[in-house]
Amino acid sequence: MVARVGSPSDVVVLGDLGSTYTKLVAVDGCGDLLGQSLAPTSRHELDSGFAAALEQLADDVPGVSARRVILSSSAAGGLRLAIVGLEPSLTVRFGRMAAATAGGRIVGAFGLSEFETVDGGAWDDLAPDVVVLTGGTDGGEAGALPRAAAALRALGGRCPVVVAGNQDAYATTQRVLDGTRPVRYVANVMPRIGVLTLDEVRAAIRDAFIEHVMGHGRFASASSLVGNVAMPTPDAVLSAAEQLASLGHSEPMFGNPVVVDVGGATTDIHSVLPRARTLASGAGFGAGPRRTVEADLGMRESAEGVGAAAVDEGWIRDLDEPVAAALSRRTVDRGFVPGTPTERAIDSWLAGTATGLGLSRHAGVLQVQAGVGGIRVVPTGRDLRRASVVVATGGVFRHVDDAESVVSEALEGATEKGALVPTPSTPVLVDRSYVLWAAGLLGTSRPDAARLLLKQQLVAPSRGVA
Amino acid sequence: MTADGLVPRDLPATEDLVRRGADLAAEVETGWATYARNRGVRNERQYKEQTIETGEITYYINLGLKSWPETRSALGRVLDEAHRLDLRVDRVSLTADRRMGLAPHARAAAIEETGIMFWTQEDWDGAARDLDIMPILNDHAVGSPAGVENALAAITAGFGYIGNLSQVNYGYPDGTSDVDQMIATVVAMGAIAAKRADGVVLDSYTDDGFCASFHDASTSLAWCLLHRYIADELIGCAYAPSYGSTFADPVLKQAFGLALDTINTSRVPPSLTHGDTNSLRPEYSLDRNAAIVTTDIYFTIANQLAHPTGSAVHPTPVTEPHRIPTVEDIVQSLELGREAERRARDTYHLIDWDPVYELRDRIVTGGRQTYQRMMDALSVMGVDTGDALQLLIATRRLGAEQIERLFTAGEADATYPRGFQPVAATDTLKRARDNRERVLGSIAAIDPAPDVAGISVVAASGDIHEYGLYVLVAVLEELGCTVHNLGTSVDNDRIVAAAAETAADAVALSTYNGMALSLSADLLRRLDARGIHPQVFVGGRLTEDLEGEKSADVRPLMTELGAVPCDTVEAMVAALDSMRTASGPIPSQRPSADADRAGAATPR
Known about the structure:
The complex is a heterodimer. By secondary structure, chain A is of the alpha/beta class. Chain A is built from 15 helices and 17 strands. Chain A has a five-stranded mixed beta sheet, sandwiched between helices. In chain A, strands 6-5-7-8-9 form a five-stranded parallel beta sheet, with helices on both faces. A five-stranded mixed beta sheet of chain A has the order 13-12-11-16-17, with helices on both faces. Chain B is globular and about 80 Å long. Residues 594-604 of chain B have low confidence and may be disordered. The chains are: A alpha/beta, B alpha/beta. Chain A binds chain B through residues 86-91, 135-137, 139-142, 190, 192-194, 276-279, 281-282, 365-377, 379, 385, 415, 418-420, 423, and chain B through 1-6, 376-377, 380-382, 397-399, 402, 405-406, 408, 410-413, 419-420, 456, 458, 462-464, 482, 484-487, 489, 491, 493-494, 497-498, 500-504, 513, 515.
């Protein structure tokens, strides 16, 4: 196969809006990184922030133009999702897993009978931006979706809905929901027992976000840039993980990547497992891409959350007073820059602990159950032990000393806790040029260039490479 | 969160158990068997090492009558006849009564089974010294609750190869807990390790244990890697795995033997290569069985000539499926062996071993992967992988099927019963697949064909038994049913949730645990509570202990509850078909608990 690669003169600008900095990356059609820029931006000054960043970039890179820009939005981290399914152990669970990959936060997940008893006040408190309705395998239970739709209609509101259940029930569901709100009908998240399909749900949530949520309500913005947003930034990072996995054919090291994205407010873990492996064969849904967001783990806003979780989840016995004070300082001052070796060490510890905790929560454990039939071992959740590489991204990993060791030590800690995380000897790559999200964004239109960008930028300077 | 239940807390320290075994061994002298004495060697291991140099083929037989005197008399006749006909026989596995696995004081009162009983040390000594044949102890010794007593008695008498580590998964009717049984095993291994310098070897006939139920020879190799690690590296035994009775395919059989040789880092000669037993059938003529035996042993001998390891060979008596072989049957098997050996010596150089090497390499690579995964996972589950006792208990509790499903090196493939395509399919798996073909054939022959297409069925096994489910799912899918296969060890809650999501017309549950009635009642109750009423079919062993009757046939009671008991897959298909015939295109649903029971469908 001949790789389709664009021309080098073909300059594309990729941007991330909606966080404290507007970030821009310029690449050519071959995936070569041409330049990067950064401009502080408040939510109400998206346009000026973008203009400043673009100007900087244009100074370094000839050919940069505002007309060839693809954007992602970090604001989507605040996207609130609710899931309604039929059986908690099946479609509710599968709906959650699918929605979790889409770049938002799951604020509620209900089995049908529970959902039918939710009152309006509680629903208003959840305030979901998008609701996912599922229930029934294809050809199976057809009454669940219309009932869920009727209950949703009774609760009122106009938030967009993604319907991803038994497709036989779509016509009746449509009659219930028609005219009440925007609705997208996509493939069933669980077409058969134990089979998870998430691509369509994920895309539909992304589209609903861009069309109906961005620019409205909490996400209101006067900026016309919003129209150029192709996807939420976390979704772009997961797409980059998938691009990496597709490199696995030629470079086995990338085949089953795990991406750790430690930000100021959240820690996101993305993993792509092979579609047909056997450890989770009993479960059937262990394969494919997956993302989890830990809203209490981060370097700044959520620094205290890392300290609390480390104690709660048994990583440390308790928090020393000076460390607790250092974490509080970060929680209050989001722009905090560590100036002393001690403060840098605390950032290292935060990054490693957030990584370890995030991975432990993302991965499953082998659970031993005793019953009538004897001892049974159930691999619950995802088994990442055969991950081929761990990629660390997020500002902190560009700044801490020996980021690779920080990650490896986190893997060791999580392994000792019994989590099915990548083994401590898994190679670690650090996204030092911070282009992972950009590669994911680029991949939507130019997958070959995106893969080249990833390959070129993810060189491991200290591990696995002589 | 993870380790609870797999290994109990407060186990005794393995090193103390091994030391206890060594202390006990220090109190006994290693005996000198007549066979070894006559050949000018101290022990059988030494003689085996010589045969690797000389290219001799040694022969093995199984024999075990009720007592040593009876067995001695029969063995004497075998040796006389062999001598008269110029046949070679070197060693005998004295197949023991299961009572030998019980503590000595409990044996007399236990139920008699077939096989030999050693009642006194004189019996043990006689077995090693009365005749010019090397005895080996393969059954109910190491691995059983009586492992320590039996190992010490055998060492004292002069037995060289003492087994059978593979029998650690056996259960004994004296209520010994698995923990106590494994403690006895570790102490016995400690005693055998202490006599390593005297040539005492820990034997492990792998086809007696989990390996017989593995679907992949690479899982079997992983199992041997685990036992080698436990026995040799952790405890210090000379460990010798052997195999053969469940192997029908000659390429696989020889490749597995070479794979075992590859991992034999301590160069301990294996005990034997057992003849193919599972291929012999009572319905076959003796001539047909003879053809199977001769081909099998021809390749085994050729392999020994090309790649000598010191393993003895075993021509299976052709009458084995019919009766416990007589002296004449055994002598005749030795004749088949001798004739095969003559031809093998002339022709073994003609064999192209490359396909065998290629398969061996795959088995070794896959086996190492599986072994590594198993050790990693055990460690994740909180098992101390440097502790022999913990490893033995944990792996026994996991069971063969789970070990294979969890740690296989094979690729996922739903058309196989365990959901993966083996690196090297065992004959056990091939038989499961053959059985599926046979049932499919018998269903296809039914005229008029059963009309069950479009019926939606949730199928599950409530325990670890998988073959019934495997065949059922294949047949129902072939007939056009929509089958939702939940797999093995499924609890009733999962069945109910799946039936609700799929709006299933029927649930098919397989159970072999002797709890068929309770399980069916619980399932029906949960379905009713959920407000769904699929027809419930239950197959497997439909028994349960009732008041006044052990293992009672509970099929009539199940029918009364509203479940449909099915003796065979064919019977379930017929019942499904009659449901549909009775009620038009959509099969009748089971009435709910409060509806009139008289309407419940009953099997024909």
